[in-house]
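Re: weekly structure request thread

Next one in the queue (208 aa):
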Amino acid sequence: MSFTEFPSRLLENAVTGFSSLPGIGRKTAFRLVMNLLKRDPEEVKRFGESIIKLREEIHYCKICSNISDTGICKICSDEKRDRSLICVVENIQDVMAIENTRQYRGLYHVLGGIISPVDGVGPADLKIDELEGRVREGGIREVILALSTTMEGDTTNFYLFKRLSKYDLLLTTLARGVAVGDELEYTDEITLGRAINNRNPYQQVQNT
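Done, posted below.
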């Protein structure tokens, strides 16, 4: 079927909306839209309302920037977590990946990305000032730099090391069980769990 002409403007608008999502082309978007048209109207209504509520009512934790239904996420509000330990990650997916290992009981800090000059992302675009603010408040004994083992991830690790090394704390990074070039959200749970448990001091990693 040609996607240059649609029998309905509503259909075309829906296909255009779905195809704006990453990884979804026009043909896939068309199949999704047609599938919705076959479903019960109430089910489609609930689906649409869930997307609207997601965009309008979602919160970002005031402490760590994780996604939450409230002002402070479940992890930061859990008194059983080790509050002297902060794991620095790139995004929400990395929090979920590490939590799935069940090997980590500290807190998190979501940067919202990594330093990438090619993409126009610098330190000021990330939650780095907020991270340093948490460290400055005291009570933090270790910061784990759990960023992807890409060139951009290593650059961000080094920048964070420079920013935080003046404070009295241990700076560590994941053991190289995570292969160079890997992104955390695609690393299997066993490998990621071992990388967390066998983390190394950042300076030691730099010298190897």
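The radius of gyration is 21 Å. The first helix runs from residue 9 to 19.
Next request, please.
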